[in-house]
């Protein structure tokens, strides 16, 4: 007798689909013999099928066929209302992610799916990667810890090709054509051969970069499909790219990546997932967790210069440590890896002292893992103690605000009161990770007494670990 399938709804862009690949692999291990089905946009999954983990793909325009099946689990990783409606209509033992119930209200099942929704416009202190958040509600942490990921391959020194992927989904996330032309010049001066890549929308951009550069450059922008891009990538020493779907394709297929992380992205969430890749990011305060830019221009772009990027890339190709010792003048260089829990992490290579933001982010990560049963209270308390020891003033400010939260939450429990938006908006920034989560939790359960009780219980745990 055939076993019931596990279904994933992933109707986001190509990069989101690739970041779901680890989940496909893990699901095969915890549901042996159960086929993995994926509903996705055909124009995204079709070119990726040759490199995808084993799965049966179903185009969104034929998604109605899944309503005839019974599923072992349904995991909705999409934000579209159509996906939420479909998720609610299916016959399944387990449902995770957003679903739209009969009265048209969208709710979320799964602590980590709720967490991910809560960091929208609120991700300054988030360190969890999208690929891990896809899985944490259903995949045991022990399995994620045991998973080994191959590091990027290193080609012989005789190979001189370096790839430059020009485009991104938004202009704010990519360098200018002048930057790319300058980078071509820097690489040529260092004895490397730059190759331009991009999708159909970047074809004109590639021609403009080549024109401004005026030197020998191979322009492949708009000429390759994703499968061909993956194949050609095997001949490159490194791919230099903004945060975009082909970056995740390159990382998944073993190509060494230097991610130019600029604009409204957070590399802790969407950086190259495989260990041993690199991220270059502005260390401006506003760039530490950026969902959307509210400034008059993109100041975080200013610190990216062709000479610096070419030097760093050359160092990574040679596998020496010269880039790590360089004063990067307003930027930080990170290497992707795994922390002690087996989750994605970025290690900063050029810092000897870390900011309050770093230790506070580490604490919030530990705290959410504690309240969701993944680590002990001792682990969360130890993380708090590090933050408090190194930065007692912000730690004191956070603790000082907790009694006010307790008073307001207790009033909500006993009076059934919905707290005004002004209350949530006035919460200090250092507490927004907590209040953003509990606010969404309350909305998710219609401010019921059960919801208020759960929020007070979480607050009690926060008081406990910070005492």
Biggest sheet, strands in spatial order?
A: 11-10-9-12-13-14-15-16
How much strand content do the residues show? Answer: 5-15%
Report the total helices: 20
Gross geometry: globular
Name the structural class. Answer: alpha/beta
Separation of the first and last Cα atoms: 55 Å
- Mean residue pLDDT: 92
Give your account of this protein's structure.
With 467 residues, the chain is an alpha/beta fold. The chain is built from 20 helices and 16 strands. The protein has helices at 14-18, 21-30, 42-45, 81-89, 111-118, 130-133, 141-146, 177-189, 203-213, 226-233, 245-252, 267-270, 306-318, 322-325, 356-371, 377-390, 392-415, 421-425, 432-444, 449-465; strands at residues 6-9, 36-40, 56-59, 70-71, 73-76, 91-92, 95-100, 106-109, 161-165, 193-197, 218-219, 238-241, 257-261, 278-282, 331-338, 344-348. The protein has an eight-stranded mixed β-sheet with strand order 11-10-9-12-13-14-15-16, sandwiched between helices. The protein has a six-stranded mixed β-sheet with strand order 3-2-1-5-7-8. Strands 4-6 form a two-stranded parallel sheet.
Secondary structure: elements and pairs:
Layout: E1 6-9, H1 14-18, H2 21-30, E2 36-40, H3 42-45, E3 56-59, E4 70-71, E5 73-76, H4 81-89, E6 91-92, E7 95-100, E8 106-109, H5 111-118, H6 130-133, H7 141-146, E9 161-165, H8 177-189, E10 193-197, H9 203-213, E11 218-219, H10 226-233, E12 238-241, H11 245-252, E13 257-261, H12 267-270, E14 278-282, H13 306-318, H14 322-325, E15 331-338, E16 344-348, H15 356-371, H16 377-390, H17 392-415, H18 421-425, H19 432-444, H20 449-465
Parallel strand pairs: 1-2, 1-5, 2-3, 4-6, 5-7, 9-10, 9-12, 10-11, 12-13, 13-14
Antiparallel strand pairs: 7-8, 14-15, 15-16
């Amino acid at each position: 007798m055939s076993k019931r399938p596990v279904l994933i709804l992933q109707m986001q862009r190509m990069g989101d689909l690739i970041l779901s690949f680890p989940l496909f692999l893990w699901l095969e291990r915890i549901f042996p013999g159960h086929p993995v089905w994926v509903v996705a946009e055909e124009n995204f999954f079709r070119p990726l099928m040759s490199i995808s983990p084993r799965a049966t793909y179903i185009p969104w325009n034929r998604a109605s066929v899944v309503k005839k099946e019974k599923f072992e689990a349904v995991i909705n990783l999409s934000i579209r209302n159509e996906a939420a409606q479909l998720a609610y209509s299916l016959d399944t033992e387990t449902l995770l992610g957003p679903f739209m119930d009969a009265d048209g209200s969208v709710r979320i099942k799964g602590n980590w799916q709720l967490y991910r929704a809560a960091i929208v416009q609120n991700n300054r202190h988030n360190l969890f990667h999208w690929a891990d958040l896809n899985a944490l509600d259903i995949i045991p942490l022990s399995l994620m810890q045991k998973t080994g990921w191959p590091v990027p391959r290193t080609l012989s020194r005789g190979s001189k090709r370096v790839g430059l992927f020009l485009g991104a989904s938004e202009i704010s996330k990519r360098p200018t054509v002048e930057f790319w032309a300058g980078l071509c010049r820097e690489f040529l001066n260092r004895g490397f051969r730059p190759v331009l890549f991009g999708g159909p929308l970047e074809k004109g951009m590639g021609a403009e970069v080549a024109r401004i550069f005026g030197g020998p450059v191979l322009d492949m922008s708009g000429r390759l499909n994703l499968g061909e891009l993956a194949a050609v990538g095997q001949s490159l020493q490194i791919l230099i790219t903004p945060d975009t779907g082909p970056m995740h394709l390159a990382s998944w297929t073993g190509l060494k990546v230097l991610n130019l992380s600029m604009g409204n992205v957070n590399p802790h969430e969407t950086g190259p997932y495989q260990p041993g890749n690199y991220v270059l990011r502005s260390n401006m305060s506003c760039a530490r967790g950026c969902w959307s830019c509210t400034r008059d221009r993109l100041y975080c772009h200013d610190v990216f210069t062709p000479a610096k990027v070419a030097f760093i890339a050359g160092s990574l190709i040679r596998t020496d440590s010269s880039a790590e010792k360089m004063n990067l003048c307003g930027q930080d260089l990170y290497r992707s890896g795994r922390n002690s829990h087996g989750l994605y992490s970025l290690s900063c290579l050029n810092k000897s002292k870390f900011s309050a933001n770093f230790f506070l982010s580490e604490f919030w990560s530990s705290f959410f893992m504690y309240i969701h049963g993944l680590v002990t209270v001792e682990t969360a308390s130890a993380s708090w103690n590090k933050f408090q020891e190194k930065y007692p003033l912000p730690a004191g400010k956070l603790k000082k605000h907790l009694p006010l939260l307790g008073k307001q939450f207790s009033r909500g429990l006993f009076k059934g009161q919905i707290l005004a938006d002004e209350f949530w908006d006035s919460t200090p920034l250092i507490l927004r990770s907590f209040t953003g989560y509990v606010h969404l939790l309350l909305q998710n359960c219609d401010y019921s007494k059960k919801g208020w009780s759960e929020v007070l219980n979480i607050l009690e745990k926060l008081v406990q670990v910070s005492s």
